[in-house]
């Protein structure tokens, strides 16, 4: 898999339910490489540190493979890489093949697969349509957040290469499905509780769905 684009965003204000808010979701390609720090991408904007950035969400990656699908649905938008708020756009990245906890090299950084993106209203602001939230969930290709194990620089054209595959077999796609499914796979819920690459907050939320014995 190859890096198609590196993207960062500046603070952007918008009106939401009668209040002025700020977001960093308006990301655009940059000519220079980006530096992956331990909690965020250098020179990027994190307007909501409760839900973005930090150890388990230091960098967000999305696949260029699915851009044509969304461009067809939203042809009137001014399209460029970074539309989904991703820091790194990669070609041929498939969530079913991204095993949580696996380690990849990315430029001269080393990163670990953590959790999928759970879309919020700010994606709707970027797309000028709150209906994209449900459509994005239903499409099933959320991209992935990564934890930065070794800080480093990423250039356009760098390779996103698997170095150490986690052996439990649970993918980003599996986690995404269980997050949004009404009937949650109980075996999977138990496995997820033991995966340290998933933040405690997410494990705690999913733990509430584990059925208690008689």
Overview of the structural elements:
By secondary structure, the protein is α+β, with helices and mostly antiparallel strands. It has a single domain (3-168), classed as PK beta-barrel domain-like (M1 Pyruvate Kinase, Domain 3), CATH 2.40.33. The chain is built from six helices and twelve strands. It has helices at 67-73, 121-127, 132-139, 172-180, 186-193, 200-207; strands at residues 3-9, 12-16, 19-23, 27-29, 34-36, 59-63, 88-90, 103-106, 109-113, 144-150, 152-154, 160-164. Strands 4-1-7-6-10-9-8-12 form an eight-stranded mixed sheet, with no helix packed on it. Strands 2-3 form a two-stranded antiparallel ribbon. The chain has a two-stranded antiparallel ribbon with strand order 5-11. Helix 5 (186-193) packs antiparallel against helix 6 (200-207). The longest helix has 9 residues, at 172-180. The radius of gyration is 17 Å and the shape is globular. It starts with a strand and ends in a 7-residue tail after the last helix.
